[in-house]
From TrEMBL:
Enzyme Commission designation: 3.8.1.2
Top-rank lineage group of the source organism: Bacteria
Organism encoding this protein: Halomonas tibetensis
Reaction catalysis annotation: an (S)-2-haloacid + H2O = a (2R)-2-hydroxycarboxylate + a halide anion + H(+)
Entry's family note: Belongs to the HAD-like hydrolase superfamily. S-2-haloalkanoic acid dehalogenase family.
Protein name, as recorded: (S)-2-haloacid dehalogenase
Length: 227
C-alpha cells in the first residue's frame, strides 16, 4: 500500500504569523504597533486553546469561530481596542495567509517521488481549500481531510481514525507531518507515524515519553529524508 503523508495546515504549510505586517498597520493608530508580534502569538495560542476546550466540552464549532473568538480575547487582553472593521479585515487576512517559503518546492519533490500527499486540518474544508489555492499549493494534494467532517478537534483519537478511514489506509502506512507537538503526539498515540517540523530551534517537544518518528527543520529537510 502506498505511503500517505497527511500534512497539518496551520503552522506547518501555512505561516500563521503571516498576519504580523497587517497587525502592525492596524495597531499603528493606537500607538501599539510594537505589540504586533505578541498579538499574533497570543492569537494563535488562544485559537488552539479554544479548540482544546471545546473538544473537551463536546461543544464543537467551526475552527474559524475559535479564530474569531481568540482575536476578540487577544484584543481585550492587550487592550489594543481594535475597531470592528479592523477585526473583520484581520479575519479576512487569516483566510489568505502565506505558505512558508519552501512549501511548494518540497511538496513538488515529494509528489514527484510517488508519495501521496493530503491536507489534514482543524479548519473546515472550505477554509483549507481557499488557503491552499491562494497559496498556490492545492495542486500537490490528492485530498483535503477536515475534522469538521466528524465535529471533533485534534488531538482527539477519533480525528486520526477518521483520517485513516477516509483514505482507506493502514496506520503503518500513514504519516502525519506537523509543526505542532500536540498533533504529533496525538497521531503517535493513535498508531500513526509522525514527523515533527521543528521550525524554531528554541521550540521544545512535550516531555510525555512519546517521540516523533522523525524531526526536521523544514519541509525541504523532510523531502530530503523521504524522497
Amino acid at each position: 500500500m502506498a505511503t500517505v503523508l497527511a500534512f497539518d495546515v496551520y503552522g506547518t504549510l501555512i505561516d500563521t504569523h503571516g498576519v504580523v505586517t497587517e497587525l502592525e498597520e492596524r495597531l499603528t493608530a493606537s500607538g501599539k504597533k510594537a505589540l504586533a508580534a505578541e498579538f499574533s502569538r497570543r492569537w494563535r495560542d488562544k485559537q488552539l486553546e479554544y479548540s482544546f476546550r471545546r473538544g473537551l466540552m463536546g461543544a464543537y464549532v467551526p475552527f474559524g469561530q475559535c479564530t474569531r473568538e481568540a482575536l476578540e480575547f487577544t484584543d481585550r487582553a492587550l487592550q489594543t481596542r481594535l475597531a470592528d472593521v479592523d477585526k473583520e479585515h484581520l479575519m479576512a487576512v487569516y483566510a489568505r495567509l502565506p505558505a512558508f517559503a519552501e512549501t511548494a518546492s518540497a511538496l513538488e519533490r515529494l509528489t514527484r517521488a510517488g508519495l501521496r500527499c493530503v491536507a489534514f486540518s482543524n479548519g473546515t474544508r472550505e477554509a483549507v481549500e481557499g488557503l491552499l489555492t491562494q497559496a498556490g499549493i492545492r495542486e500537490h494534494f490528492d485530498d483535503v481531510v477536515s475534522v469538521d467532517e466528524i465535529k471533533r478537534f485534534k488531538p482527539d483519537p477519533a480525528v486520526y481514525a477518521h483520517l485513516r478511514n477516509r483514505l482507506e489506509v493502514a496506520p503503518g502506512d500513514t504519516w502525519l507531518i506537523s509543526s505542532n507537538p500536540f498533533d504529533v503526539i496525538g497521531a503517535r498515540h493513535a498508531g500513526l507515524h509522525a514527523a515533527w517540523v521543528r521550525r524554531s530551534l528554541d521550540a521544545p517537544f512535550d516531555p510525555w515519553g512519546v517521540e516523533p518518528d522523525m524531526t526536521v527543520t523544514d519541509l525541504d529537510a523532510l523531502a530530503e529524508r523521504l524522497e
